[in-house]
Structure formats: C-alpha cells, structure tokens
Amino acid sequence: MATGVSAPGRAQIKEKTLRTDRWWLAPLRIGVILAFFIVYATVRIFMNKWYWVDAYHYLTPLYSPCVTESCVQGSSHLGTWFPKFPVFIPFGIITFAVLAGFRGTCYYYRKAGYRSLFFAPAACAVPEPHKKYTGESKLPLVALNLHRYFFYGALVFGLLNIYDGIQAFHGKDGGFGIGLGTLIIWINLVALWLYTLSCHACRHIVGGRLKNFAKHPMRYRYWTFVSKLNPKHGTYAMVSLFTVILTDAYIMSLSAGWFSDLRFFN
C-alpha cells in the first residue's frame, strides 16, 4: 500500500510539497558542513604526517594518541603500543574509529544526516525519496544504538585531549610556555567537552532511571548541569567540528613549516 503523499487518504496532487519558504536552506547548509568535515578528516588521517610540533609539544586531536612506532619521535606521549603500521593504515585509526562512531551515532548527527545527506525527509511536510523505511531496529541502522557505548570511549579520548593540552604549555627552550597554538588547542578542548557533556547519552547516564532524585543528590546535580547544556547540543556539535579543523590545520601548518607559532610567553 502506498504511503506518505501517495496514501489513499491524502489529496492526490502533483506538488510534492506546498511549502513556499526556503526549507531546503537549512539541510543544504548542514550537509555542506558535514561533507566538508568528512572529506577534510579523511584526507588528513591518511596523510600520516604534519601532526606534531616538537618545539611546543603540539599534537593534533586527529592523531591523538599516537601509539605506533610509525609516529615521529616525541609524539607518543603514552608510549608505542603497536609496531610500525603499513603506509595505507592511518596512525590515528583508533581515534578515528571511536570518535567517528560517537559522532556518527549521535542523536543530533542522525537528524542532520537524515535531513541533509539522505533526505529522510529533508524537512517537515517534505516527502522523502525512499520507498521503504524499517527504522533503527534492523541492520545497518540498528548499529546507531551503540551510541551510549561510544560515549564512554569519547570520554576517554576527551581526557587524553586534556593531557595533550597540558603538554602544549611547553616552552621553546623547555619549561613553561604559551603560544597561539596553546590557546587554539584549549579552545578546541572546551568545545569538545561542551559537545560531549551535552550529549543525550550523558544526560541519561548521570540521571536516567532514577525514581527519586532526593535519594541521589549528587547525580541530580550532574543531571541538572547536563540538562542545562543539552538544549544547545546541536550548536556545540557544529562548533566543535570547526574547532577541530582549526586546531588540526594550525598544527599541520606549523609542522609543515609554512609559518611559525605566535608566542606570548617563552
């Protein structure tokens, strides 16, 4: 039986939608941003170079942690867990797998992906081109329910990024130092943590399934804090994409020797 605009109970008109506003602008804008980030991140992780600035201990988040013997000297803060990788395997494959899984299964990115990349549907009252939809209970979309588990992995990598941020307070001649790269790294850290902590899965983990908040005052405090961040989860999601790109591009430029870091102290 036909569904949607072709259902028997609907008026049979040739127009796919009667909306006269620019409904396509929002999904187009988000789609361009998502597509750009996907292409940029894919190219960068397969470059396997220009990810570490030894003078100031800057490590791009796309390659953190770098734990293979293929990593340049000094970039393996946590040691080398694996031997040298073949040239076709990215050094940041673990980082990519966990964080791409976290963002790809995120409730906000699901909506953005459905509307912007898959047109399912592109906007309210605009029919989608797909003839069949089985929901997120069957393969491959059932894998989206792994989001809560990817969240735990994102927390671990968030802590690793904080460690990288602390390492970025490194002076050119040793000791303490602050440069423009240090500030960019910490701005990215704030954006990433706002995105992570405003996650719907985080809100459920800290306060879900509680029948009486009075008996769990600490979890109620956490739940209240996350609930204040949650309405802007989509904003943090998009902002953090740009901060990740900015951080990686800046560190890549320094590592490649295109220009020098602006130093404020040492």
Automatic annotation (TrEMBL):
- TM ranges: 23-43, 87-109, 149-169, 175-195, 236-259
Keywords, alphabetical: Membrane, Transmembrane, Transmembrane helix
Give the top-rank taxon of the lineage listed in the UniProt record for this protein: Bacteria
Q: What is this protein called?
A: Uncharacterized protein
State the organism named in the record.
Kribbella orskensis
